[in-house]
């Protein structure tokens, strides 16, 4: 049996081992809301929020007091805050690993008007998805008619495409 050795890049800092990045945060969700949503996973040392100049969403960088706390986010790539699914990325991952977390995405179209991320939760679990995002209109902040559904692998994405699902009594 041959051993395979993989050289992993070192995190930028020790705190990266305890840090997650949270994306797709609408502006109506404030820092206190983020802290409440994420403190149930462990003790938070720091939470910083910043906005992109061109986008109508924010990002947060949450540092926990222990690296053990963020291990649960290896499998859980999203957390709901109000009706919004917030995507999570571990900060200590390499660029390639981060890209692979966004690699297997399906577009779910023809959603009923005003469908929110939380409305897709049953579908999310049924399809073994990792995250779901219904984009918001740039001007009105109303939900669009489609969603991005992220999967952990190509196999899960392929299996989901083969399924017929119903949402609010529509197939």
UniProtKB/TrEMBL annotation:
<protein>
    <recommendedName>
        <fullName>RRM domain-containing protein</fullName>
    </recommendedName>
</protein>
<dbReference type="InterPro" id="IPR012677">
    <property type="entry name" value="Nucleotide-bd_a/b_plait_sf"/>
</dbReference>
<dbReference type="InterPro" id="IPR035979">
    <property type="entry name" value="RBD_domain_sf"/>
</dbReference>
<dbReference type="GO" id="GO:0003676">
    <property type="term" value="F:nucleic acid binding"/>
</dbReference>
């Amino acid at each position: 049996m041959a051993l395979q050795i993989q050289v992993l890049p070192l995190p930028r800092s020790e705190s990266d081992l305890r840090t997650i990045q949270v994306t797709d945060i609408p502006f109506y969700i404030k820092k206190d809301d983020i802290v409440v949503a994420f403190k149930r996973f462990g003790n938070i040392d720091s939470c910083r929020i910043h906005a992109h100049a061109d986008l109508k969403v924010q990002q947060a960088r949450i540092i926990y007091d222990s690296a053990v706390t963020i291990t649960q986010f290896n499998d859980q790539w999203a957390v709901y805050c109000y009706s919004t699914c917030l995507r999570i990325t571990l900060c200590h991952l390499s660029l390639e690993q981060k890209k692979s977390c966004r690699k297997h995405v399906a577009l779910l179209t023809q959603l009923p008007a005003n469908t929110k991320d939380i409305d897709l939760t049953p579908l999310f679990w049924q399809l073994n998805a990792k995250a779901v995002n219904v984009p918001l209109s740039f001007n009105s902040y109303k939900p669009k008619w489609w969603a991005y559904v992220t999967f952990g692998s190509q196999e899960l994405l392929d299996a989901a495409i083969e399924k017929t699902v119903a949402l609010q009594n529509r197939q």
